[in-house]
Structure formats: structure tokens, C-alpha cells
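Appendix C: a fully annotated inverse folding record. The material below is reproduced so that readers can follow the format used throughout the book. The structure is listed first as C-alpha cells, followed by the designed sequence.
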């Protein structure tokens, strides 16, 4: 049990592959996926700092250098960051085990690096200390428990069981595991050094088998696990609409319209909020930006282009008169003049959608894919003319 009662240290789980966000994560670590133009993990670090957490440990694997390069020593975000790199994934608990020397002297937190939340960290830690158990799990009531690990508890909030993605009719609870935990140092006795170990599959069942008391804490504020492309979209748009308390980049020119530094928007551009436009962007005349809409840094939007309900990552160019509806566009994508991207399409980094090309609804394009325009069908031959007859030559101009 912690004696100080002060802010704990924290472990940020950032080593996962993020396969359910592919093709966006084919070249990007999931914690680096932007929510309103900032990596989702940045929002977590800023939240922890606001609650007085100053020491964070971050385990890495997928695109580790990108994470370390962006967050550095953590001082820009109000804290000190320590890292470990996993050649092979060690699991959620195994990742924590690599930091036992840094975390093993007091109460500490474990938080998913890809969670979008404004959880009251201070209240969560206070509740954990009041329970007096070895562990506390933050849980959130959800409408459909079949997508989550479900936690069952008794009248005193003590955990009594788990279900992994149960059918709605079989669910014993609608409280899902949020991947936010508070632990006492004794938890390290259950984590084998250097071996794969998972909280949900190994540690929590062990605590139940040993009749070790641990508890739930209901998270009443916002939480999104960013666990799918649908949830990723929802997280961005919930942040735009103010449903989760995050720091928005840029300046709010008018209600629901944020614009970054060195960005130029033509006077006749139609903007329907909520809309976020990043730093260093250029939006040409007669474009229409219909929210909810996120445009990353360094993007260009061509003359007469229409973007509606789109998440548009950094460095992407949209051509003149192009039309995009409800999709997600990765980094450094080129969308040509008069191209059309239909609702629900997801376009990976570095793709090229040629002039006049069409991306079908719900398409998934891996990085560096090229989409050519479909050639126009030939006009039917005139009656009485053989189809193979060569066309008459054009008169000289």
C-alpha cells in the first residue's frame, strides 16, 4: 500500500500492433494515430500530467522509433518518460514487468496508450487506495458487451469473474474492462520476468483463484478504446463535438471551427462546423468543408473540392473538384482532380488516386496503392456500321 498518498507513476502500454486499424497502422504505431491532429497517446500523457503524474514508463515494439522520437524525454508534455523496447511482444502484464525497478515501490497505474478518455485519474487512484486491494480495474457500462471483455462484481465492487466478448444474451454484466488499472507493487510477484504475460488471461484469473480481493471502479466520463476504424472515427468526431475533454490544437476562429498556424483559407470557402484545419494548410476558393471534419497539418484542398465527414491525415493533397465523403485518408496521399472517394473508404499512407478515379464505398487501400481512372466506355457504333470499322480521322484544326 502506498504510504505517500501522492500521484502515482504510470505504465503506458504502447507496444501493440493495432491490426484492427489497418491499413492506417500499416506504417503507423496505433498510439500515434491522430485524434484531432494529435497522437492518441499524447492525450493520455497530457491527462496524466494534469493529475500530477510525473513519471511514465512506455513499452515499445511496433514503429518504436516513431513513438520515442515524438515524445522524447516527455518534458514537453509535463513529465519524465522512460522506455523499454520488446524484441518480442511480452503481453500487457509482461510489458509492465519490464519496469519493476521503476514502478515497484508504490501504487502505480497502467493505461492503454491507444485509449481516448478524460477519466478522473485522481478519483480513480483514491478509490483504489480506499479499497485496500492489490488491484482496481476501471470499467465502463456499454450498450453492446459482445465487443469487449466484461467484468462481473459483487455488491461491494469486488471482482468475481470475467467474460470475453460474450453474446449479448449471455452477458452477466455490461461493464467492460477499459484497460486502465491501479496496482500495488505486490502484483510484480505474479509477473514472471522476461516472459509473456497478460492481465486478462493470466493475472486476473490468478487473483480470482487465490481469492485475492480486487475491485472495479466505474468510469462515468468518456472512454473509447479506439479499437476499430469505426471507433477511431467516432473518437475524432466526439473530440470535435466536445464530448471528451481534450486539448484542441489551433485557434477557434468561430464556434466549432479551429485553424492552425500558417494556414490560408480562401474567403469564399464554405465551412460547416465542427471542422479542424491543421497547421500550414491551403484551402482554395469555392471548396466546401462539411463537418465533422479533421484536416491534418500541411494539407492542400483544391478549387471546388468538397470534403464531408472526412479524417484527412498530414501532408495529403486533394485536387480540384474532388469529392470525399465519410472516409479516412492517411498521410501523404494524393487525390487527383475530379476524383471521388465514397463513404467509408480508408486510404493508406502514400496512395495515389488519379484524376477522375473513383474509390468505392468501404474500400481498404494499403499504403502506396494507385487507383487509376476507369477508361470511358466507347460510344456505340452508328446503325449499319461495323463495330470494327476504324473511326474517321478528325479534320485538322
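Designed amino acids, in order:
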Amino acid at each position: 500500500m502506498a504510504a505517500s498518498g501522492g500521484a502515482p507513476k504510470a505504465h503506458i502500454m504502447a507496444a501493440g500492433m493495432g491490426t484492427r486499424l489497418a491499413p492506417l497502422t500499416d506504417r503507423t504505431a496505433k498510439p500515434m494515430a491522430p485524434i484531432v491532429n494529435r497522437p492518441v497517446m499524447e492525450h493520455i500523457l497530457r491527462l496524466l500530467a494534469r493529475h500530477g503524474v510525473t513519471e511514465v514508463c512506455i513499452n515499445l515494439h511496433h514503429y518504436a522509433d516513431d513513438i520515442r522520437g515524438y515524445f522524447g524525454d516527455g518534458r514537453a508534455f509535463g513529465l519524465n518518460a522512460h522506455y523499454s523496447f520488446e524484441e518480442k511482444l511480452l503481453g500487457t502484464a509482461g510489458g509492465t514487468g519490464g519496469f519493476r525497478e521503476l514502478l515497484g515501490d508504490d501504487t502505480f497505474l497502467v493505461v492503454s496508450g491507444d485509449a481516448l478518455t478524460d477519466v478522473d485519474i485522481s478519483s480513480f487512484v483514491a478509490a483504489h487506495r480506499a479499497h485496500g486491494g492489490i488491484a482496481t480495474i476501471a470499467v465502463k457500462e456499454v450498450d453492446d458487451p459482445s465487443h469487449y471483455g466484461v467484468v462481473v462484481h459483487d455488491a461491494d465492487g469486488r471482482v468475481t469473474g470475467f467474460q470475453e466478448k460474450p453474446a449479448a444474451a449471455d452477458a452477466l454484466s455490461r461493464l467492460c474492462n477499459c484497460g486502465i488499472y491501479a496496482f500495488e507493487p505486490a502484483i510484480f510477484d505474479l509477473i514472471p520476468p522476461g516472459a509473456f504475460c497478460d492481465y486478462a488471461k493470466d493475472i486476473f484469473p490468478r487473483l480470482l483463484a487465490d481469492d485475492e480481493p480486487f475491485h472495479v471502479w466505474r468510469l462515468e466520463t468518456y472512454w473509447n478504446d479506439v479499437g476499430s476504424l469505426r471507433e477511431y472515427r467516432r473518437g475524432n468526431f466526439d473530440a470535435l463535438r466536445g464530448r471528451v475533454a481534450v486539448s484542441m490544437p489551433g485557434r477557434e476562429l468561430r464556434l466549432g471551427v479551429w485553424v492552425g498556424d500558417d494556414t490560408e483559407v480562401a474567403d469564399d470557402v464554405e465551412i460547416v462546423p465542427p471542422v479542424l484545419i491543421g497547421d500550414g494548410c491551403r484551402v482554395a476558393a469555392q471548396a466546401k468543408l462539411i463537418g465533422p471534419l479533421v484536416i491534418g497539418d500541411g494539407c492542400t484542398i483544391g478549387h471546388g473540392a468538397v470534403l464531408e465527414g472526412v479524417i484527412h491525415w498530414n501532408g495529403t493533397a486533394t485536387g480540384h473538384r474532388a469529392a470525399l465523403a465519410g472516409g479516412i485518408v492517411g498521410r501523404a496521399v494524393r487525390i487527383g482532380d475530379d476524383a471521388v472517394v465514397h463513404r467509408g473508404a480508408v486510404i493508406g499512407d502514400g496512395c495515389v488516386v488519379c484524376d477522375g478515379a473513383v474509390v468505392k464505398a468501404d474500400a481498404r487501400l494499403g499504403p502506396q496503392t494507385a487507383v487509376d481512372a476507369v477508361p470511358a466506355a466507347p460510344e456505340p457504333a452508328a446503325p449499319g456500321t461495323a463495330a470494327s470499322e476504324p473511326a474517321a480521322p478528325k479534320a485538322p484544326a
